[in-house]
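for the recovery benchmark. tokens below, seq after
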């Protein structure tokens, strides 16, 4: 099959524009043709360990024929119908009821989207409309965090706290404010203060600076994913919940990456005994087999929509798509039947141990961190001072090239290498991931 790859890449370069488009990067790219378990295969016939579950989403692994069968069956019965008010379908009703039992007790009503970016947009509009209905029309601002990723549609990009996504598309949407991430490796708290509480108090300062009567919501990933797998301190989110309650700010959990077991719990705020007012989800709900996502909200928010005299003017053609709902339902069967969230907890702890054994002594490894089956290795120029490499050194990019030579495919944020393999990855595959990354770091950094 290897002889067809150059022709495919030529056609690709002639006709496709890619997410994060770069002709330089893509000219030596992959053309994926099949997958099984935690492995994906290039058109040149070579197999790679899928170190990021596609894009954090293929949690049940590649090649799950029962998910394809669920889609086929639903397509044969009812491929599509509108989800607009006055129209529904059995699978959407079934999925919403099931999620109400599975998610946080605070979350009871659901709106379905095609993915995480649409979920972010829905949260912004849901929060703003809620406050308008309740008589607070000026509560419109969104506070999010540095290194947070919430999508790259224009408003979602404005909430995303990774600045590299901004310059080509500015001006950003007004009304979005960023505070520092709790980032335990780098956040500097005042002397004598709890780092987690001090980081959470950045939210209170921002609310007071902007004016509590102008802030609609605080948006946060329980564990920041694309920003480098940043795991918060144990006292961070309990304090966040207190602050949101004090100032009447909706707390929105972006569980697009962390939801459905990635951190070892079904939903990640369970680690800290905290519940949100709104929850965003996507990715793992269908294991990536169908583009699907959504937003869950509390009954008090849903009741405001119910009581309004005018329709809620927010809509997507593919909201509550019956095929997406059918695939999600079957995927939830797999997650529950095979205990995959528990497997993510166990395998994540194992992978973290292997990474620390393989890389912990390297002079250019600043931190190895993780929660469940999402881990990261942060490479630094100086371990003692935590000084970063210069961007021109392209350390992360060079390590990533070495990793791919050795049969592992994943992504990074700068010089932070991320790993979040499918929950079905075997111990041997996790061992190989740690070994490959260690060998690649040695090849680049000595």
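predicted aa per position
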């Amino acid at each position: 099959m290897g002889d067809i790859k150059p022709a495919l890449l030529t056609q690709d370069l002639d006709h496709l524009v890619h997410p994060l488009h770069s002709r330089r990067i893509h000219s030596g790219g992959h053309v994926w043709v099949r997958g099984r378990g935690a492995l994906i295969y290039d058109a040149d016939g070579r197999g790679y360990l899928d170190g990021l579950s596609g894009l954090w989403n293929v949690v049940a692994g590649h090649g799950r024929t029962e998910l394809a069968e669920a889609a086929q069956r639903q397509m044969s019965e009812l491929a599509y119908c509108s989800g607009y008010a006055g129209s529904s379908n059995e699978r959407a009703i079934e999925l919403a009821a099931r999620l109400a039992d599975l998610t946080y007790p605070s979350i009871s009503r659901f709106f379905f989207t095609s993915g995480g970016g649409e979920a972010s947009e829905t949260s912004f509009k849901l929060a703003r409309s809620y406050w308008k209905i309740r008589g607070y029309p000026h509560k419109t601002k969104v506070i999010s965090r540095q290194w947070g990723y919430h999508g790259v549609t224009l408003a979602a990009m404005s909430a995303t706290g990774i600045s590299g996504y901004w310059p080509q598309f500015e001006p950003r949407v007004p009304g979005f404010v960023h505070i520092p991430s709790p980032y335990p490796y780098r956040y500097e708290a005042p002397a004598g203060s709890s780092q987690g509480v001090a980081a959470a108090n950045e939210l209170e300062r921002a609310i007071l600076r902007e004016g509590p009567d102008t802030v609609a919501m605080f948006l946060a990933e329980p564990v920041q994913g694309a920003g480098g797998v940043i795991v918060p301190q144990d006292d961070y989110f309990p304090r966040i919940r207190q602050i949101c309650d004090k100032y009447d700010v909706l707390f929105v959990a972006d569980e697009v990456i962390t939801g459905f077991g990635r951190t070892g719990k079904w939903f990640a705020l369970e680690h800290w005994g905290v519940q949100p007012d709104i929850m965003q989800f996507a990715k793992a709900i269908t294991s990536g087999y169908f583009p699907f996502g959504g937003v869950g909200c509390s009954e008090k928010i849903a009741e405001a929509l119910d009581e309004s005299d005018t329709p809620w003017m927010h809509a997507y053609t593919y909201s509550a798509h019956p095929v997406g709902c059918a695939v999600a339902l079957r995927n939830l069967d797999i997650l529950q039947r095979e205990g995959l969230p528990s497997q993510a907890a166990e395998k994540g702890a194992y992978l973290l141990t292997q990474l620390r054994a393989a890389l912990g002594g390297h002079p250019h490894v600043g931190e190895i961190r993780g929660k469940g089956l999402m881990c990261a290795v942060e490479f630094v120029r100086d371990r003692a001072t935590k000084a970063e490499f210069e961007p021109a050194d392209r350390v992360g990019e060079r390590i990533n090239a070495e990793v791919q030579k050795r049969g592992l495919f994943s992504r990074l944020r700068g010089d932070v290498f991320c790993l979040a393999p499918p929950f079905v990855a075997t111990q041997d595959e996790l061992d190989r991931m740690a070994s490959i990354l260690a060998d690649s770091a040695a090849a680049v950094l000595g």
